[in-house]
Design brief:
The protein has helices at 3-26, 34-48, 56-77, 85-103. It is mostly helical and 106 residues long. Helix 1 runs antiparallel to helix 2 and helix 3 runs antiparallel to helix 4. InterPro entries: UPF0060. Its main location: membrane. It holds the Pfam family UPF0060.
C-alpha cells in the first residue's frame, strides 16, 4: 500500500480515536465512547508501522502533514467549520514538508 494511503487511513483512525476522548470530556458523552476510540488509536499506531522506512521518526514526521490536512477535513465535514485561508496555507506548507521528507534521496 502506498505511504500516502497508509498515512490517510492512519489520520482517520487517529482523529476518530482522539475525537472520542473529546466527546467524552468536552461533550458529555458516555465513557463507553472510549472503547472504540482506543481501538481506533491502536489501529492508527499499527498503520504507521506499515510505512516503508527504516526509521520510525521519519515516518512520524512525514505523517504530520497528512494529519494536518485530515484534521482540517474533519473540521469541515464533522464539525461544520470551514477552514480559512490561513488553515489552508499552513496545511500546504506542512504537506510540502511531508513530501520533502518522503521523497528525499537517501
Amino acid at each position: 500500500m502506498p505511504a500516502f494511503a497508509i498515512y490517510f487511513l492512519a489520520a482517520l483512525a487517529e482523529i476518530a480515536g482522539c475525537f472520542t476522548f473529546w466527546a467524552w470530556l468536552r461533550l458529555g458523552k458516555s465513557g463507553l465512547w472510549l472503547l472504540p476510540g482506543m481501538a481506533s488509536l491502536a489501529i492508527f499506531a499499527w498503520l504507521l508501522t506499515m510505512v516503508d522506512t527504516p526509521a520510525a521518526g521519519r515516518a512520524y514526521a512525514a505523517y504530520g502533514g497528512i494529519y494536518i490536512i485530515a484534521s482540517l477535513c474533519w473540521l469541515w465535514v464533522a464539525e461544520g467549520a470551514r477552514p480559512d485561508r490561513w488553515d489552508m496555507t499552513g496545511a500546504a506548507v506542512a504537506l510540502a514538508g511531508s513530501a520533502i521528507i518522503l521523497a528525499g534521496p537517501r
